[in-house]
Design brief:
The protein is an all-alpha fold and 278 residues long. It is built from ten helices and no strands. It has two domains: 5-96, Helix Hairpins; 101-265, no CATH class. It has helices at residues 5-35, 40-51, 64-126, 135-141, 146-158, 170-179, 181-188, 197-214, 224-255, 257-265.
């Protein structure tokens, strides 16, 4: 999920205030050490308690230059310190909101795979003549640690997710997708998905395939050129489905082990998969 513009602005503002505060404290430390002859430790201490308005009173400037420096430090430093505290609070709230949006987004992704995504993976993978080249990687990739997953992920992303269009039951596929057309439209309209570009692209690809199949009155006797065209649409959806499925499985593994358990027992790439616990 891409980081929102508001989150970036809040983060930038916090780090800008923090940098300004560090600069003011350094200037105050060096200034008080020079005009008040404080040690660097005392000068740093006095700068911090002045900026934070704590003011214990154990140290205070006695020279006119030191008093002027203290006033300048208060006028500039207090505002910067207050701004930094406010920005830190905003950043915490922004991260919490981002996490909440991520949870809602993954609920939507889960609903998609539950309703249509997993079924499509089963259908497409059954018609993939080269699936045995990556089947074990697909099964292993959902379970292994992150450091082991990286090379597997790289291999899977380079795989050519093509299907033997002659083995695809286009009439059945059209029936399945047509029955989920309203569901897909509602997902596309969900504003939460705007923050997840890759899943939005997947939805649009699935919706496009649905439209392609629905608009053909006769689906069984298509010319070879049209079959090649549909095979390309299926290939696009198939590859995106696998990418998003892997990401979603690894999310479930970390955050919802009980959902991950069911997902593994119904793994679309496991020919012996069964929801029954044995």
């Amino acid at each position: 999920m891409k980081k929102s513009t508001n989150s970036k602005a809040v983060s930038f503002r916090f780090w800008a205030f923090l940098a300004g505060l560090a600069l003011i404290i350094c200037a105050g430390t060096l200034g008080f050490a020079a005009v008040e002859h404080f040690s660097l430790t005392d000068a740093f201490y006095f700068s911090v308690v002045t900026i934070t308005t704590v003011g214990f009173g154990d140290l205070h400037p006695v020279t006119p230059a030191g008093k002027v420096l203290a006033v300048v430090l208060i006028l500039m430093g207090v505002g910067i310190f207050t701004g930094m505290v406010a920005s830190a609070a905003d950043m915490i709230l922004s991260r919490r909101e981002t996490q909440q949006r991520l949870e809602k987004l993954n609920m939507v992704i889960g609903a998609f795979y539950s309703e249509v995504g997993t079924r499509l993976l089963v259908n497409f993978s059954d018609c993939d003549p080269q699936l045995e080249m990556i089947r074990q990687d697909l099964l292993k990739g959902t379970r292994c640690p992150d450091e082991d997953f990286r090379p597997i992920n790289a291999k899977l992303r380079k795989y050519d997710y093509a299907v033997d269009i002659g083995k695809v039951d286009l009439a059945h596929l059209r029936s399945v997708l047509a029955g989920k057309r309203t569901f897909l439209l509602r997902l596309v309209e969900n504003p939460t998905l705007l923050e997840h570009e890759t899943f939005t692209d997947l939805l649009m690809a699935v919706f496009h395939l649905t439209e392609e199949l629905i608009h053909r009155e006769e689906i069984r006797d298509l010319p070879e050129t049209d079959m090649v065209h549909i095979a390309g649409d299926i290939k696009r959806v198939y590859g995106m489905l696998v990418d998003q499925w892997l990401d979603y499985m690894r999310y479930l593994k970390v955050n919802y082990p009980y959902l991950f358990s069911l997902a593994m027992r119904t793994n679309p790439f496991d020919q012996g998969a069964t929801p029954v616990v044995k």
